[in-house]
Write a structure and sequence with these properties.
- There is one protein chain.
- The chain is α+β, with helices and mostly antiparallel strands.
- The chain contains twelve helices and twelve strands.
- The chain is about 45% helix and about 20% strand.
- The strands form three sheets. It has a five-stranded antiparallel beta sheet with strand order 2-1-5-4-3. Strands 7-9-10-12-11 form a five-stranded mixed beta sheet, with helices on one face.
- Strand 3 and strand 4 form a beta hairpin.
- The chain is elongated.
- Bound molecules: adenosine-5'-triphosphate and magnesium ion.
Length: about 400
Amino acid sequence: MKPGFLEKLVARLDRVEHGEVQQIVTRLIREKGFLEKVFEALQEGVILLDPNGTIDFVNQAACGFFGLDPDKATGEHLSSQVRGLDWNTLGKPGHAISRDLEVFYPENRFLNFYLSPIDDGEKSGETLGYVMLVRDLTRTRAEAEETLESERLNALTLLAAGVAHEIGNPLNSLDIHLQLLGRKFRKLPPGDRKPLEDHLATARGEIQRLDTILKQFLHAVRPTAPRRERSDLHTLLHESLRLLEHELESRKITVDLDLAPSLPMVTVDPGQFQQVFYNLIRNAYQALPAENGRITLRMCFNDYEYVISIEDNGTGISPDHMGAIFEPYRTTKSSGSGLGLLIVRRIVREHGGEISIESQENQGTRVTIHLPRTERTVRLLGSPTIDLA
Ligand SMILES: Nc1ncnc2c1ncn2[C@@H]1O[C@H](COP(=O)(O)OP(=O)(O)OP(=O)(O)O)[C@@H](O)[C@H]1O
Ligand SMILES: [Mg+2]
């Protein structure tokens, strides 16, 4: 229908034949139905408002974002339906605005909306109403945060590698000079030689220790590409448990295993996954109370993924601390480095998986790993599902 057609029609309405009016009205109704279908098919939220901010139309996506019922919301004022959005600060004739929004109910989401006035197209510039387009930014925002985090981690890695290099060189030189001293000591009479050689051995032992700490630290922080091979998760878990056997037994800790039998083989870096299990079980163990400590290890799988969880009835994590749990050097332990969880998450992500932590103070903590099964030959890319029904 051409622009201005309706206006011309209204002006000539008394001269148009009855049959023709009927035809035009039917066409109008069909076009309205078509437009509504288009709006409903959009993933963006669409809200049409009258000049005062009363909702004329709201599509399904917008209802989903704001938890609205389309039948109840239509005819109501936007500010009463989306509490926290003040119409007086938004709707201004002739002004389009774009704002970001955090929604807390029915689901925590980050949205961006664009509110644009609909002018009547005439010189008078009268505003017929407003259209509000709403986009979901939750995923983009989460990705941006992940990128920022990995940039921070890369910066930290570079810094750490630089410092380690600077310490490594003088350490090396110290060791060489101590060796030279040792050669000179050999020329001394045996009585004088012995105490000096003891001091020398201690000094070289300490240098060796520093060197090992440095190497371990670099190994932990430097991202290494996983060397994947077909592995059995049960075996990896048992091997990690064996490394902690002594501590677990000495404190009489109950370890419950709930492992799905016939777990299919998985293609992962076995050494890295052993490190993942070891770190998580050790964290669980360190959080346990002096008595009746219990750790539950679960493993199951479905067509798409393995789900592994490590649960303890320990101290739990306070809500304040939860937000910083993966940050480097955040530790509540006198001898902890605060790198354990960071390394665990890096390994899990490098294998295409995800890690989540649920915890309640004084009740316990559950860490869950979702690891995709690599046997699949195709993988749908991580775009949101579109239900065509
Ligand atoms: N199962 C758990 N129960 C309670 N708190 C936990 C648990 N796992 C981790 N935490 C908390 O998260 C912090 C960070 O854990 P992370 O493993 O990264 O470092 P760490 O254990 O302190 O040191 P390390 O580098 O030796 O592992 C811990 O200091 C602890 O406060
Ligand atoms: Mg730890």
